[in-house]
Amino acid sequence: MMDITYRGTPVSTGGNLPEKGAKAPDFTLVGTELNDITLKDFEGRRVILNIFPSIDTGVCATAARTFNKLADDLPNTTVVCVSRDLPFALNRFCATEGIKNVVTTSAFRSTFGDDYGVTMENGPIASLLARSVVVLDTDGRVLYTELVPETSQEPDYEGAKNAIESA
What we know:
Layout: E1 3-6, E2 9-12, E3 28-31, E4 36-38, E5 46-51, H1 58-71, E6 77-83, H2 87-97, E7 102-106, H3 112-115, E8 132-136, E9 142-147, H4 157-165
Parallel strand pairs: 5-6, 6-7
Antiparallel strand pairs: 1-2, 3-4, 3-7, 5-8, 8-9
């Protein structure tokens, strides 16, 4: 269990992020076309998991835009945005914003939040996913993790980028 805050209110997550060097937990998420997206879909590629509460908030939208720009400059790397938003909302956001370099996914019918230890267990937005980043190498091993301590703050983009570039 990890402790963070949401606008200053203490919140606990349901577990811990995977440890550096560990094999990342498998997942099945829902894509914007209602298709299943699994970790196996990215075999042989580096992956940045940009995990957040909801695309309809300013910080989450900014993170999606920023990772979309970063993805353009990171060879053999896929950025997967993960939230509990419905695929329809994610599709609308990406179409409106011109987001094309990331894969947006929904964990609305998945155990992803529990498997990655990022489900917020209490507080005003309980059951949504805590803002975090997990970077995987081409073998699906964890290179880097970040649980953002205050949900209203942006993640460390440079930390994720550096993990990819040093792999």
